[in-house]
């Protein structure tokens, strides 16, 4: 049991052995937040809610008579589970509903609650799941001026230190619009909290940036129509003294792939309010009578032992409760992707040679990237029709050939896009999102399809199913190469932009849900010009996402390092490419910290390079599944602040581990000891370093001696395997 209710105090306690989350129903029927932090057995409500007398407390009164509420509650400065709009509380509101008279006043009060022992499921919408029983608390609140209800849900996933929070809105009357609806609110004292957000750009994704939370607003958002390269919908909050191994921190992560907003506000009393949900810019969701509107879930993960433990919890949460693909805990194929090897320039013969090359380097999945369909010799045309360019390739012959060599076959798709020159556009221009009277805003020469239109969804499902039904395709790379702008939908002509973006995202989920459910044996890899849609909504459907179009391995260390704060290594598509600066050994070792594979013309590889790659394949086979796919990650060095990148990954049973260390600038002789983390101190491990053996104790406390000259980009890859007793 992880949710308790104390009847006398009207107190809720959501907890596991590591954290507690307390709130109660106060005299005014408002849910007052009390505590979120390390596990706390009991709580003194009075101690927490007594905010002192000198602040001019605002008492609530009933019927303008006496001050009836005896508690310390003051709406403008107390911590709340759900703030209000238009009241004395001037902090940003989590929810605003406009009525037909143009009033935005919104204030919800508690009505009833129920504790369930199951999780909700909804077709075409990413919701966390659990293989074991979990507690779910659903509180029903009523808007004080209208017949509108809000169901506030909390799920405790006690195995991973995570609470899920989400809301549903049901209106019993017509004529109202949701203009803001944040799934998540957390009010707490600012004290010494800082935050890390993950900003970036194409080929430069998820840079962790630590900033102080100051008074006023700090907002992170996307209005790109997808979660975006520019900002990730996740933020870590941490105390001044928190490090990788010490201190309090928590992660707020939105399970959504469209426009989002994470809003932080510190008021004059030093209250910090955190809100997270879909972006409220130009949002107007019509509330139809009796229709239930479900908003995305937010995962709140806690650590009292520093950032490494927080990341590990987040990784476990994502693997156990978000990624629903059957591949999540499985060994991934070593793939060879054609893109950086030949781009759009290929034919059947050339691809056959690539497949043969894939065989030679030890890959067991070949992926034919962009360029296999009609009119796709440049990226100006072709997206939409999705007919095989028979002059260029014989798909069946290629797939049969790959399978004859025991190599699986994968194909690239960019389902959500369309080029103007296609038949599809000629016949159905309304399938594209386009604003009339505005210059056509192309980006990478393409427009985005209107996935808020079910006809478009059906068209795409039919098209893609044709390939999956008629060809033995084992893998699909699902790309998304532009962000959304100038949107207008023929079937939702009156939808505000913010709402339309949301409907488009819901359509994207429909598409992903139907195809991934229909073809559970196909491995799907997400992609959006690299890592432009790297979020939990996508991971729900695709167990891996191409992490970035940047394949320079050194640049990749930064991107994969940043991504690792939130997302498991096994979700990060990572390949060895043709980059000239580093050795294949280094490239391979960095790719090993992701899904692992290659993206080059295999015939450019010299024999000794193939040998180098084969050695890394050997490590992959022996260590990848237990460590990278299913193990625990420890970050040892921060590449942004040191001259080293270093991580080690330990299998859950602590019998196997790998360590990768990369030196950036040339560095001369120095005493250097590289200490492992997370090993079993009682175990003895055999290394790949001349087969020398060391105890876990020694490796963690003394560390491996690397007191030597280090060249630029020199890498050290250490494997550890417990010696059988
Ligand atoms: C995007 C992807 C690449 C490749 C190209 C093909 O940029 O990220 O990996 O698939 O599209 O056009």
TrEMBL record:
Substrate binds at residues 202, 369-370, 444, 477-481, 527, 549. Keywords: Glycosidase, Hydrolase. It is an enzyme of class 3 (hydrolase). It comes from the Bacteria. The active site is at 479 (nucleophile), 549 (proton donor). One of its GO terms (molecular function) is alpha-galactosidase activity. CDD domains: GH36. This is Alpha-galactosidase. Signal peptide: none annotated. It holds the Pfam family Glyco_hydro_36N. SUPFAM superfamilies: (Trans)glycosidases. Residues 647-720 form the Glycosyl hydrolase family 36 C-terminal domain. GO terms for biological process: carbohydrate catabolic process. InterPro entries: Aldolase_TIM (IPR013785), Alpga-gal_N_sf (IPR038417), Alpha-glycosidase_related (IPR050985), GH (IPR017853), Glyco_hydro_36 (IPR002252), Glyco_hydro_36_C (IPR031705), Glyco_hydro_36_N (IPR031704), Glyco_hydro_b (IPR013780). It catalyses: Hydrolysis of terminal, non-reducing alpha-D-galactose residues in alpha-D-galactosides, including galactose oligosaccharides, galactomannans and galactolipids. Belongs to the glycosyl hydrolase. The keyword Amino-acid biosynthesis does not apply.
